[in-house]
Amino acid sequence: MLGPHLATLLASTVRLLWWKLRNLTHMKGMGWRCCSVVLLLLLQPLVASPSSIVKNLPGYDGDLPFKLETGYVGVGEQQEVQLFYLFVESQRNPFIDPVLMWFVGGPGCSALSAFFFENGPLKMDQNFSGNIPKLELNPYSWTHMLNMIYIDIPVGTGFSYSKTQEGYYSNDTLWVEHTYAFLQKWFIDHPKFNSNPFYVGGGSYSGAPTAPLVQKLYDGYVAGLVPRINIKGYVIASPLVDTYQIINMRVLYAYHMSLIPESLYESIKENCGGDYVNIDPEDTKCVSDYEAYSELVRYINPQQILEPLCSTTPALNHGILQSSLQYRSELWCRSYSHILVNTWANDESVRKALYIREGTKGEFLRCNKTLAYTSNLLSVVEYYQNLTKANIQALVYCSDLDMSVPHLATEYWIKSLNLSIYEKWRAWFVDGQVAGYTEIYKMKQDHYLTYVTVKGAGHVAQTFKPKEVYHLLQRWFSYSHI
Fold first, then answer.
1. Is residue 461 part of a domain?
2. Record's family (predicted)?
């Protein structure tokens, strides 16, 4: 039996050989393609990534009642970028249930953020004492119906790292390229999921790389590239699609939500011409109006306008968090719970349980705001427009109390796609109560773009309304009436 280091080296070599051959296949035609497939089949047992099954996690009593896998996949020219991931098999029927890769926004926010605070199988109990936060099962975990891949991307996020300093420089385009390479290798390593319907999704900033990634996957599927990833659609929540429109629509949203008076809205709209991004500093009327607007929303929490605006400074530590949760509930802020995951992930026993490679990561931060990252896709509307011609399904949902990515901005770019309305605006329900509103658009043949608002939710909806979004996803993936 091969030792672990030799096995890893051999797997990396085989993977690199197959990868180069696949590229030649693309250029040389069917002869090379057949050779590539034969090589893949012969060497399949050797190409598994160094991944591990996690049976227990600190903070959770007993064995995990779901199958959790963690590991790294190397991408880049020399595999210098090592992307950490968590994979949870569906708790229903993993061999036929869809596979959903879920991105977290930021850029720079870890997969553990979604794993514990959005849609993963576990959540953190805020009422705890001791060094390790307690973990409990999430009754609204999407893993009840989906195979979920969570990935720390871009490089430098969470537990992902680079073997070289240059490898830490990244941008939106590299996010797409690295994820595509990740998926190619992951599906080679997990052939039993090759025929499952595959979806890409994510919230907030990840709306930008999702569109070009889905396009790349769809083009590869149509071309018959190996492995043939069975891409069926995308799911995006409060997505960053057009930065310009998001900033502009915040002013209109503030007016709609009575945060600014009608007189100021009419004045700023006239004096700034509806453009609050490219403000001329010499235009005193526009500048004055925008300053008045900024002052009025200064103390509003843009993530959820009805919740308090709270400090997230480094001075707010684990001890202060415990004090505020246990003794001074009036200080409660949703963002304080995010400190829990930092406390948990920086514990040595947790890192061993997750099989984190020693010496690759210093302090873990839920959101790393010091990335060497460039946002080079400020608008991806054109990509989403192209995807309306593909044989895929789309779900876009937004929160009506989110000012950071206002639902008005999302509705604006969806309308710009010029799709015909298949089902007019109506309410949708959970437990007999209005959970939000939806409108469905016809794309290609029997494929649709479903747009949904989630009533009373903030950015991103499942953090605030997990039950409602759980039912939304359950209905959408089962092609049921939302």
1. yes
2. Belongs to the peptidase S10 family.
Q: Which of the 8 DSSP states describes residue 266? A: H
Q: Confirm whether 89 is domain-assigned.
A: no
Spell 319-351 as b/e; 16+ CB within 10 A means b. eebbebbeeeeeeebbbbbbbbbbbbbebeebb
Distance of CA 457 to the CA centre of its chain: 17
Instruction: Give the ranges where 54-133 is alpha helix by DSSP (H).
Output: 111-117
Which domain does 451 fall in, by range? 380-477
- Specify the DSSP class assigned to residue 242: B
CATH number of the domain where residue 414 is located: 3.40.50.11320
In this structure, what token pair is assigned to residue 431?
């437990």
Q: Which H/E stretch holds residue 338?
A: helix 338-345
Q: For residues 377 and 241, what is the distance between their CA atoms, to the nearest angstrom? A: 9
DSSP result, 280-316: -TT-HHHHHHHHHHHHHTTTS-TT-TTSPP----TTS
Rounded Cα distance between 465 and 344, Å, is: 24
Nearest residue to 158 (alpha-carbon basis) of 240, 83, 100: 83
**Phi and psi (nearest 5°) for 120?**
-80, 175
Secondary structure of residue 151 in the 3-state scheme: strand
**Cα–Cα distance measured from residue 120 to residue 88, given in angstroms and rounded to the nearest whole number:** 8
Longest dimension (CA), the chain: 77
String of b and e for 280-302 (b: at least 16 CB within 10 Å)? eeeeeebeebbeebeeebeebbb
Closest C-alpha among 104, 118, 85 to residue 205: 104
Is 35 within the bounds of a domain? yes
Does a structural domain hold residue 324? Answer: no
DSSP symbol at 191: G
Single-letter residue type at 125: D
The amino acid at residue 92 is R
The count of structural domains within the chain is 3
- Residues catalogued as catalytic: 204, 402, 459
> What pTM did the predictor assign?
0.88
Q: What is the pLDDT along the chain (482 residues), one digit of tens a residue?
A: 333 333 443 444 454 454 445 444 444 444 544 444 444 444 444 444 568 999 999 999 999 999 999 999 999 999 999 999 999 999 999 999 999 999 999 999 999 999 999 999 999 998 777 789 999 999 999 999 999 999 999 999 999 999 999 999 999 999 999 999 999 999 999 999 999 999 999 999 999 999 999 999 999 999 999 999 999 999 999 999 999 999 999 999 999 999 999 999 999 999 999 999 999 999 999 999 999 999 999 999 999 999 999 865 544 444 544 544 444 455 578 888 888 999 999 999 999 999 999 999 999 999 999 999 999 999 999 999 999 999 999 999 999 999 999 999 999 999 999 999 999 999 999 999 999 999 999 998 899 999 999 999 999 999 999 999 999 999 999 998 89
